[in-house]
Amino acid sequence: MLKPLENRVVLRVKEEEEKSVGGIVLTSASQEKPQTAEVVAVGEGKTTNHGTLISPVVKVGDTVIFEKFAGTTVKMDGEEFLILKDSDLLAIVE
């Protein structure tokens, strides 16, 4: 499994519906990039210049909304993950 460093978070991006509101099937090229994901791993946090550790506010299992073009996509064991900084997260879905 991936273990993120510092203030990075590993996400499993959720698959979005492949149909439009009107029921039209969309090709993968015309679909927008999904913006919700499940947190699968969290780094320890970022250390400030004064030595204080700032821990990420998300935890494993949270569902989050993230910036549209944020992060780096990696493939591991046939599954795709997104690694990004916790500052690229916009909200936790409750």
Number of helices: 0
* Strand-residue proportion: 35-45%
Order of helices and strands: EEEEEEEE
How confident overall, as mean pLDDT? Answer: 86
Please tell me what the overall shape is.
globular
Strand order across the biggest sheet? Answer: 6-7-1-2-5-8
What are the segments in which pLDDT stays under 50 over at least 5 consecutive residues? none
Structure commentary:
With 94 residues, this protein is mainly beta. The protein has no helices and 8 strands. A hairpin with a 2-residue loop joins strand 6 and strand 7. It is globular.
What is this entry, summarized?
GO terms for molecular function: ATP binding; metal ion binding; protein folding chaperone; protein-folding chaperone binding; unfolded protein binding. This protein is mainly beta.
